[in-house]
Design goal:
alpha+beta; 3-stranded antiparallel beta sheet; about 10% strand; Nucleoside Triphosphate Pyrophosphohydrolase
């Protein structure tokens, strides 16, 4: 399908969308609302960058508490750059896609070396670790008011419906981006980007969109055709392969759990884990006690499942009690500290199967 240049009347789309945003924008902890922007308050590039990195492949609700924790611990990019990598990984634990946390530290280091100031152009931002085309456009538009085309999943949905783009995703991405570029206003491009994302998140939803409340209802080709849910068109996803392995939860008499740190590179890089077998995205690992890290009275504690981006994983979980020293490359984490370790969700599931409640924060008794 050829790319259609927005018609002259499409210029009014931005105005209608911005008027809706002024009245109905979401209040988010990293966002400067329109009323404050109008008073001259500028977004903090650090907070914009941090939120956009966290929001990749993650929901707004899941990100809010992590964002608050990060800005409380590290209120500036230079503070984040000064933080030990292990502390950042611990604060990130549970948010997933852990390469983002490693890139977060690398990017903070580089920005700190630049004097703590982020570049204000898309090209300059893309030169930083972990910042791709989308994130660079979002920071440029929201933090620096650059007329950049910001295209995430919400924007793709709004745009494919607005112009009835029937090309399946991801092939339609170039076409969608071209349409968004034609709509971005010179004034308030950051608000336009956030308005489009808010519209997709609250009105132009994947299922049962609330078209009667949409400020672009009269402009929407899919609404006129009566089938907005048809868009965006997606090719069928192949079924994810299932991998298997085993996890070994060793418990000391004082409640400490044996952990080790995963290699910095690769899946879950730099995170903590209980000893586990050599499963990967492409191969199974051993699933029985023959692969235990040391001899002990290992008992089956259950099984857990977890879904990664490209595969699903099933782990048999074994538990043993021991008071021996930690093997080389391992360490004991006391019961009060388990909840603060850099444990990915799959490892929390394994520990919970063996020791229910072990990874939950412990309440400190009141004096």
């Amino acid at each position: 399908m050829p790319v259609r240049n927005p018609a002259p009347q499409d210029a009014g789309i931005a105005g209608r969308l911005l008027a809706w945003y002024d009245a109905h924008h979401r209040d988010l902890p990293w966002r400067v609302p329109p009323r404050d922007l109008a008073r001259g308050v500028r977004p903090d590039p650090y907070r914009v960058w941090l939120s956009e990195v966290m929001l990749q492949q993650t929901t707004v609700e899941a990100v809010k508490s992590y964002f608050s924790t990060f800005v409380r611990k590290w209120p500036t990019v230079t503070a984040l750059a000064s933080a030990p990598s292990d502390d950042i990984m611990k604060a990130w634990a549970g948010l997933g896609y852990y390469s983002r946390a490693r890139n977060l530290k690398a990017c903070a280091d580089q920005v700190a070396a630049l004097g703590g100031t982020f570049p204000d152009t898309e090209d300059g931002l893309r030169a930083l670790p972990g910042i791709g085309a989308y994130t660079a456009a979002a920071i440029a538009a929201i933090a620096f008011d650059r007329p950049a085309a910001v295209v995430d999943g919400n924007v793709e949905r709004v745009t494919t419906r607005l112009f009835s783009i029937a090309t399946p995703l991801p092939q339609a991405k170039v076409e969608v981006r071209a349409m968004v570029e034609g709509l971005v206003p010179r004034e308030r491009p950051g608000d336009f980007a956030q308005a489009t994302m808010d519209l997709g998140a609250t009105i132009c939803t994947p299922r049962r969109p609330r078209c009667m409340l949409c400020p672009l209802r009269e402009d929407c080709s899919a609404q006129a055709n009566g089938d907005p849910e048809f868009y965006p068109v997606r090719l069928a996803k192949p079924e994810k392969p299932l991998r298997r392995g085993a996890a070994f939860v060793a418990v000391r008499s004082d409640g400490a759990v044996l952990l080790r740190k995963r290699p910095e590179k690769g899946l879950l890089g730099g995170m903590s884990e209980v000893p586990t077998t050599n499963w990967t995205a492409r191969a199974d690992g051993a699933t029985d006690v023959s692969a235990a890290p040391f001899s002990a009275d290992w008992q089956k504690a259950g099984a857990i499942g977890h879904v990664f981006t490209h595969f699903a994983l099933e782990l048999s979980v074994f538990r043993a009690e021991t008071n021996g020293p930690a093997p080389p490359g391992h360490f004991w984490s006391g019961p009060a500290g388990i909840s603060g370790e850099a444990l990915p969700t799959v490892m929390k599931k394994a520990i919970e199967a063996a020791i229910p409640g072990a990874t939950k924060p412990k309440r400190v008794p009141k004096a």
